[in-house]
TrEMBL record:
Signal peptide: none annotated. PANTHER family: HALOACID DEHALOGENASE, TYPE II (AFU_ORTHOLOGUE AFUA_2G07750)-RELATED, HYDROLASE, HALOACID DELAHOGENASE-RELATED. The lineage of its organism: Eukaryota, Fungi, Dikarya, Basidiomycota, Agaricomycotina. Pfam families: Hydrolase. It comes from the Eukaryota. It comes from Candolleomyces eurysporus. The keyword rRNA-binding does not apply. This is Haloacid dehalogenase. Transmembrane segments: none annotated. The keyword Disulfide bond does not apply.
Amino acid sequence: MLASPEWSRIAPHWSENERDFLNLVWHRLRAWPDTVEGLRALKEKYIIGTLSNGNVRLLVDMAKYADLPWDVVFSGELFQTYKPNPNAYLEAIRYLSLAPHEVAMVAAHAFDLRAAAKLGMRTLYVHRNQEETDPDQEAIKTQR
């Protein structure tokens, strides 16, 4: 990508280390300010985890960097399919030995919540200013 014309003016000025640092920025994301406290509270009573289209290493690095107290990390990479494919959700649920109605998908992405709801999962919408907005978000806030 850095060899492409749109990057040709700045790419030569970056060392290999600088390029690697920039490329791995997703591994060093900070959590939203309310996230860690909220997850710790949920963890007292529930199994908490992530189901992401990111790869396993990315999710582990994110958890360590942001102090995310997940009990389990699920990646579409493990199931060889990605959200919103129903198999991604169903495989994660299967590994937890739960039925869809016993699981809640908490997300800031409407596509994720719609896919989970179609499988019988409970859904909780978390509004984040920098994330997508959706005209149907009221309809997916708390489906039970």
